[in-house]
Write a structure and sequence with these properties.
Blueprint lengths: L4 H20 L6 H13 L7 H42 L3 H27 L1 E2 L4 E2 L5 H15 L2
Antiparallel strand pairs: 1-2
Helix pairs in contact: 1-3, 2-3
């Protein structure tokens, strides 16, 4: 939580590159290629393959292709977000952390105002048109005594 947005973007970019290199890098070290070859060797045999074994191999191959496509799309999307955020930060000349911080402060203030309005609304007695006090009678008298004691020594 203590990381800045820029640090998070750099971390995401580094992790994306590591995942992309380990999963889809060189065909000799590609994890998905080795998984595919492992499935092929597991279900393949030296004798004539039956139709069901061929179907399993094809299904496994298509599943690994789908998984690879999904992961590549995810990596591409997070890379695009990182690049876009860095471009926006450079164009604005203000750190995104400052923008987020000011947005959080603004929304906290607005939330506080909304909660206060809700609390005031709940104190209204619509049948009589009067508004109940925020404090009960004893608390109200205590506050009045303290205020008067400071005003009148």
């Amino acid at each position: 939580r203590n990381q800045t947005f820029d640090d998070l973007l750099k971390d995401t970019e580094a992790k994306n590159s590591a995942v992309k290199a380990s999963l889809f890098g060189d065909s000799d070290v590609s994890l998905f290629d080795s998984i595919r070859h492992g499935f092929m060797s597991l279900f393949g045999s030296s004798h004539e393959n039956s139709e069901s074994e061929k179907q399993v191999v094809e299904d496994t191959s298509s599943i690994t292709d789908e998984i690879a496509t999904l992961i590549q799309d995810s990596i591409a999307a997070t890379s695009n977000v990182t690049q876009h955020a860095q471009a926006e930060e450079a164009a604005l000349r203000i750190s995104l952390d400052d923008i987020f911080r000011s947005m959080q402060q603004g929304t906290s203030f607005e939330l506080g105002r909304a909660l206060e309005l809700i609390e005031n609304y709940r104190r209204i007695e619509f049948s009589t048109g009067r508004r109940r006090s925020r404090y009960d009678r004893e608390r109200r008298n205590d506050i009045a005594k303290r205020v008067l004691s400071r005003l009148l020594p």
